[in-house]
Amino acid sequence: MKLKAIVPAITLGTLLLAGCSQEEKVSLDTTAQKASYGVGLNIGRQLKQEGAEMDANSVISGIRDAIADAEPKLTNEEIQAAFQQMQEDAERKQQALSDEAAKASTDFLAENAKRDGVKTTDSGLQYEVITSVEEGESPAPTDQVRVHYHGTLITGEVFDSSVERGEPAEFPVNGVIRGWVEALQMMKVGEKWKLYIPADLAYGARSPSPKIPANSALVFEVELLEIVK
User: Fold this and answer.
1) Phi, psi (rounded to 5 degrees) for 113
2) What residues have CB less than 8 Å from 171, skipping those under 6 apart?
3) Most buried residue, 17, 28, 69, 128, by CB count within 10 Å?
4) Is the dihedral of CA 217, 222, 224, 225 positive or negative?
5) Rounded to two decimals, what is the model's pTM?
6) Cα separation, 15 vs 178, whole angstroms
7) For the chain, counts of helices (H) and of strands (E)
């Protein structure tokens, strides 16, 4: 959770929140009302993505006091202490999740390596060939490729999928995570592989999005459609 991003987001929400509460019916008839709702919706999505546990009524109360120039209900010191405590709680929670993900990933890959058809490279990348091509070109690191992919956590939870979007992706081979860089150079155009990528060949100890915990092994089905010339 990035607390620095929360305060500006709440400030931007003044138009929507200052005059409303959870119990009031909001009119969305005028252009200003619709735009205000859009601002609030975007802020809500941002706060959700940040993982912030905010109380809506308290947010509204703070905005109203600021607009009315009323005496704050809390001192600056109390507010800063609350932010600090929230940050520490979030870090402890994230560390626990990271440790859990790391152990689960290690155990999963150890068992997966024993399955028939799964090959493991020197780097630790695991893969199995779903669709094989006898003859075909393999991309170089600087080549642009067009692929379809379906990415999940080891639990099967989908975090990204060009297949579900119905739109293949294009990118340079050396512009993606290390596990992909290695695998793509071994694949031939027309082949489809399933990749099991250790965390250190993916995003490591950082979490690139709320959908992917830190230290997570990732699973991808990748189809190399073409090398874009």
Assistant:
1) -65, -20
2) 144, 145
3) 17
4) negative
5) 0.61
6) 45
7) 7, 7
Predicted confidence band at 21 (pLDDT cuts at 50, 70, 90)? very low
Query: What does the DSSP 8-state code read for residue 212?
Result: B
φ, ψ at 42 (rounded to 5°):
-65, -40
User: Mind listing the pLDDT tens digit for each residue in 25-58?
Assistant: 778 889 988 887 787 677 767 766 666 677 777 8
Q: Residue 154 class from Cβ within 10 Å (0-12 exposed, 13-18 middle, 19+ buried)? A: middle
Which residue ranges form the domains of the chain, and what is each CATH number?
3-73 (no CATH), 108-228 (3.10.50.40)
Q: Which of 60, 58, 51 is nearest to 14 (CA)?
A: 60
Alpha-carbon span 216 to 99, nearest angstrom: 10
Which sign does the torsion angle of CA 160, 162, 163, 164 carry? Answer: positive
Report yes or no: 42 and 18 within 8 Å, Cβ to Cβ: no
CB neighbours of residue 65 within 10 Å: 14
Note the pLDDT tens digit of each residue in 124-159: 999 999 999 998 899 999 999 999 999 999 999 999
How many residues comprise the chain?
Answer: 229
Rounded Cα–Cα distance for residues 35 and 14 (Å): 12
Q: What single-letter amino acid sits at 191?
A: E
